[in-house]
Amino acid sequence: MSTPILFDLPGPKAKARIRIGTVIGVLVVLGLLAIVLLRLDGNGQLDPARWAILFDPNSGVPQALGEALVRTLQVAVVAMVAATVLGVLLAVGRLSDHRWVRVPITTVIEFFRAIPLLVVIFALYFVLPAFGPDLSAFAALALGLTLYNMAVLAEIFRAGILSVDKGQREAAFALGMRKTQVMTQVLLPQATRRMLPVLIAQIVVLLKDTSLGFIIGYFELLRQARSLVEFLNFNFGNIYTLQIYVGAGLLYILINVLISQLAKLVEKRTRSSARAAGAAAPALPTATVSTGNNSGL
Amino acid sequence: MQFFVDNFDTLLRAFLTTLSLSLLAGVLALVLGTLLAAMRVSPILPLRGLATFYVELFRNTPLTVVFFFVIFGLPQIDTVVSFFPGAVIAVGAYTAAFVAEAIRSGINSVNPGQAEAARALGLGFGQSLREVVLPQAFRTVVPPLGSVFIAMVKNTSIAAGFSVTELSSTLPRLVNADAGALLLVLLGVVVGYMIITLPMAFAVNRLERRVAILR
Amino acid sequence: MRLTKYAAAAAAFGVVLTGCSSEAGNQAEEQADNTVAVETDVEFEAGTTMAEIADAGTITIGTKYDQPGFGLLNPSGVPEGFDVEIGKLIAAQLGIEPDQIEFVETVSANRESFIQNGQVDLVIATYTINDARKELVDFAGPYYEAGQDIMVAAGNPLGIEGPDDLAGQNVCSVEGSTPAENIRTNYPEAQLTLFDVYSKCADALTNGQVDAVTTDNVILTGLVAGNPDGFELVGNPFTEEPYGIGLTLGDTEFRDFINDVLEESFEDGSWAAAWDATAGQITGTEAPEPPSVDRY
Questions:
Q1: Which residues of A fall within a CB distance of 8 Å from B56?
Q2: Which of chain C's residues have a Cβ under 8 Å away from the Cβ of A263?
Q3: What is the pLDDT of residue A266?
Q4: Most exposed residue of A110, B146, B153, C137, measured as fewest CB within 10 angstroms of its CB?
Q5: What is the spatial distance between Cα B214 and Cα B138, in angstroms, rounded to a whole number?
Q6: Is B172 in Cβ contact with C194 (below 8 Å)?
Q7: Do B193 and A119 lie within an 8 Å CB cutoff?
Q8: pLDDT tens track for B172-211
């Protein structure tokens, strides 16, 4: 934190002020927490019997949530693999010397980055059947995620490739390597190593985006949560709604936190090896048209 | 074709809804995000903790889940919001976390020497922030902030699943239309979003180039 | 590391709660069961849909997953309800066991396209027969007569007695459903809020985000059952909604077959048994008189 630089080390008056501020801050935070908890309790939401449903195998809820989590991961893995492969191809294509390759690929990339992922998914699920194949919710979701993320990953890989020291490229050409060899044997491996943390962060984004599947009926975690709530509502009244949604939300957060921790771990490892190679971590480039999504949204 | 013409004003109204949703959520996100960024660099520990918790929470939660909680969860603590305000709150609160991160990284990117020099010159906290740190932070902050807001506009599409008649919601409603009309509507939706995102992207690019420091 | 502390806390919490059991878990065993006798020796004319399905040994039925009493998905991933039971009856006559039926969710807006695209063999999903739909799909049945009605907050604070009282009020229904179209066409002064599923309407009514919910009375009864202190049914059905079984346009043999199966079930009590096990549990009343099948 650079904060101590913005102001002198606090003297006695400042320390006192900070202490007062801290006390007030703690009171405010506790106060907000208390209000929330009191209201929850007033509606009977804190009853442990309600929360038990998340752990009670007889109700079928934990199994259902678990299976839905698996379905979420399935579509995420498929989309991630496909998006990575296509992303690399697009990135290389965008860096091509041939204009007839570069321009269409750039258009494709910028197109998919400019429109919402939900529109892509809706188009695949509701509009495509009128023209051709019918896609199941899984296929529409997986394909939508792939198309969208391949564009994002293409930009990430391109940044990585561009950030590799020019000397590497020149040396490779000097050794007589052809363009393809230079790309596949010299540039891509180094680029991937550098962009690994960003790539893993993109997995988190992709996982969060799987929840869009609920809108087209794919039974991922959120959709499953809603279905459980409807069933339980009907049979037992509105007593499990909040609990199930909190359970589903926590599962998402848990998975994402785990993956983010993995990303940090990988970043630490690559940083130490990158230091040995004497390189600085590259910043993501702004494309000809920067349409966002490098920020993990 | 007739179908498209009949539904054109639905599209137009939906576009305006998306636009207003984006603007309102954007303002909320900017204000709340700046506040959170300030809290994250403040010397008061509970504020820092609260802000960090908020940011980490929203970064790891899908926006759809946030929507669920705002529309269907808040009533459990006796706060009922109707759909459009709920969408503004959900998108705004979610984006605020990313705005805070962008601003914080901007502040952190300013060379510490600058702040030290400001202190050495005798400038106070407020003055050094205002005159030295923030103007330089602004340069670094523009591209990621631009990204964040463009992504936010795209994220407003999620409100379609929560009864806000914005652009994306027009697609499933017109599912039984004939192929040609459906394609036109899709085109209309895509163009609608691009009308908002492409100019934003160009503006960010221009602004970034203007404030860039050639090194 | 931070993560292990959180993990340990969560695990401890979970262990404590696995000791407790929930009401839902305890009652999960007590679901009413309706066994259907499956025909073992079935033979159909070659080339008919029935023969195809019987040979395949499986049938794909589209139903609702969110309509209490008619088609509601349980945590094990299988829908339960009256529509499901009717489906089982038909499948039984094709020699297909209930667990060989593949159920697919069909929401109101995509019922026709699923039939037309062949994604399902039948749609049994509180599917009202009307002339506009008859141009796209064929209907067997009806197998039940419902009526459009209105659900309001308990105590009926706005004094809504019928659809005319909906003028200027916020009324909720589902995209692509007949009740929604009815309101839109015949009662345009009502403010229509549309969702993709009824549960969102129910939530919206609970939260005061809408003033009323309108759809078929049986669906509303299911929603009221989920919140008897919060909701009430106005109780004045103002339309007739015959529920039919949707199938491919022009498949007259299949339609006749299903109509035969339905008529038989009206006679031999299996229709009434299906009702008692499912929708009858909500209303608490005896099975009504079965409708007469419409062979158009």
A1: 257
A2: none
A3: 78
A4: A110
A5: 15
A6: no
A7: yes
A8: 777 666 667 778 888 889 999 999 998 998 998 888 888 7
pTM of the prediction? Answer: 0.82
Q: Look-up: residue for tokens 């290389």?
A: A92
Query: Is the per-residue pLDDT at A199 higher than 70?
Result: yes
CA A240/CA A194 separation, integer angstroms: 46
pLDDT at C59: 92
Give the per-residue pLDDT at A274: 55
Residues B82, C209: C-beta atoms closer than 8 Å: yes
N-terminal to C-terminal alpha carbon distance within chain C:
72
- Is C210 within 8 Å of C171 (Cβ atoms)? yes
CA distance C85 to A3: 67
How many Å lie between the alpha carbon of B177 and the closest alpha carbon of chain A?
Answer: 9
Q: CA-CA distance, C104 to C114, in Å (whole number)? A: 10
Q: Predicted confidence band at B99 (pLDDT cuts at 50, 70, 90)?
A: very high
Q: What is the mean pLDDT of residues A195-221?
A: 87
Could you tell me if A149 lies within 8 Å of chain B, comparing CB atoms?
no
Helix segments in A46-60, DSSP class H = 48-51
More confident residue, A219 or A279: A219
Cβ contact B174:B185 at 8 Å: yes
Kindly list the residues from chain B whose CB atom is less than 8 angstroms away from the CB atom of residue A295: 98, 101-102, 144, 147-148, 151
- Contact call for B151 and A212, based on CB within 8 A: no
* Runs of H (alpha helix) within C94-138: 111-116, 131-134
pLDDT in tens, A134-149: 788 899 999 999 999 9
ipTM: 0.84
CB contact (8 A) between residue A296 and residue B108: no
Closest-CA residue to C166 (of C146, C151, C147): C151
Contact by Cβ (8 Å): C41, C97? no
Chain A, 246 to 285: residues with Cβ < 8 Å from chain B are 246, 248-249, 252-253, 256-257, 260
Min distance C114 CA to chain A CA atoms (Å): 10
Please provide the average confidence, as pLDDT, over all residues in chain C. 83
Quote the pLDDT of residue B160: 85
Does residue B94 have a pLDDT over 90?
A: yes
Tokens 């080390």 map to which residue?
A: A9
* Nearest neighbour of A296 by CB, restricted to B49, B59, B190: B59
State how far the Cα of A266 lies from the Cα of A254, in Å rounded to an integer. Answer: 18
